[in-house]
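May I ask you to comment on the folded chain given beneath this request?
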Amino acid sequence: MRETCNLNAAQLAVSSRTIDKGTLVEAQGEVDLTTAQQLRQPLMEAVNNPPKADVFVDLRQVDFIDSAGLALLVEARKRLAPEGRALHVLLTPGRQPERVLKLGRFDTIMTLVYDAAGIV
């Protein structure tokens, strides 16, 4: 007997805009191996293109992030560091992305933000 595994593909919507303090990249959905490339393009554009300012990644509407998404955040942080620029990650307390970032001690290399007032 053959079993059928029906996996639902992850969904991710990403947008990017310039704000007073830098560039804001907003994501909604799930960031995993199948969707990380959708986040990669606008995130790397924010990192590599003017204005050369801080980068803000809004994960408040992200339900799930896996190692592919985490690796992408680390890559962005590494590219920003030599220029003295920072990566700020906006989170909702208690959701999976916040738990994973805190457990992985990502708060030691990037700024985790819980209040978007004054940013967006």
The radius of gyration is 15 Å. The first strand starts at residue 12 and ends at 19. The chain has a mean pLDDT of 92. The chain has one domain: 12-113.
